[in-house]
Write a structure and sequence with these properties.
With 142 residues, the chain is mainly beta. It is 13% helix and 53% strand. The strands form two sheets. Strands 3, 4, 6, 7 and 8 form a five-stranded antiparallel sheet that branches. Strand 6 (115-126) and strand 7 (129-136) form a beta hairpin. The longest helix is centred in the N-terminal third of the chain and has 19 residues, at 2-20. The radius of gyration is 21 Å and the shape is flat. The termini are far apart. 21% of the residues are buried.
Length: 142
């Protein structure tokens, strides 16, 4: 019985070791073909864009979390509509903060039918150097 238990534990450890050697990376399928997908940012921990639409009113949320040594974040938030296969800016908002976290929410009412998304683009500064980060929300159709 002890031999069977040891053998089972050994096999389980080998299977776990084998599968832990593999990694999986997710890719944003809505990213334009010419947009560079960056696995890791130098200054930024995460960037997100979220869109919800209720009664033809869009609520756009953008969030950037950076490392604590970041001195400034300049964020631009876009509400975009798909027109003839391309994304067109319907409304643009901007905000700059002198800290390493920003959460920015805006609304736009009286939307017409169509497919929408929110796009977040931010410059994340460490003193005078910066990196540009971006994120697209999921699409919402009304």
């Amino acid at each position: 019985m002890k031999v069977l238990l040891r053998f089972t534990c050994l096999m389980l450890m080998m299977v776990i070791s084998l599968f832990s050697a593999f990694s999986v990376n997710a890719v944003d399928i809505d990213a334009p073909v010419d947009e560079e997908i960056i696995d890791e940012y130098a200054y930024t921990v995460s960037v997100s864009a979220n869109l919800s639409i209720n009664s033809n009113t869009a609520t756009c949320r953008s969030t950037v979390y950076a490392n604590s040594y970041v001195t400034k974040i300049a964020l631009t938030q876009y509400l975009q509509k798909k027109v003839n296969g391309s994304w067109t800016n319907i409304k643009t908002w901007s905000k700059t903060v002198n800290t390493y976290v920003i959460s920015y929410t805006n609304t736009k009412s009286s939307l017409s039918s169509g497919t929408y998304r929110t796009r977040t683009v931010a410059k994340v500064y460490k003193n005078s150097s910066y990196e540009t980060v971006s994120s697209n929300s999921s699409t919402v159709q009304i």
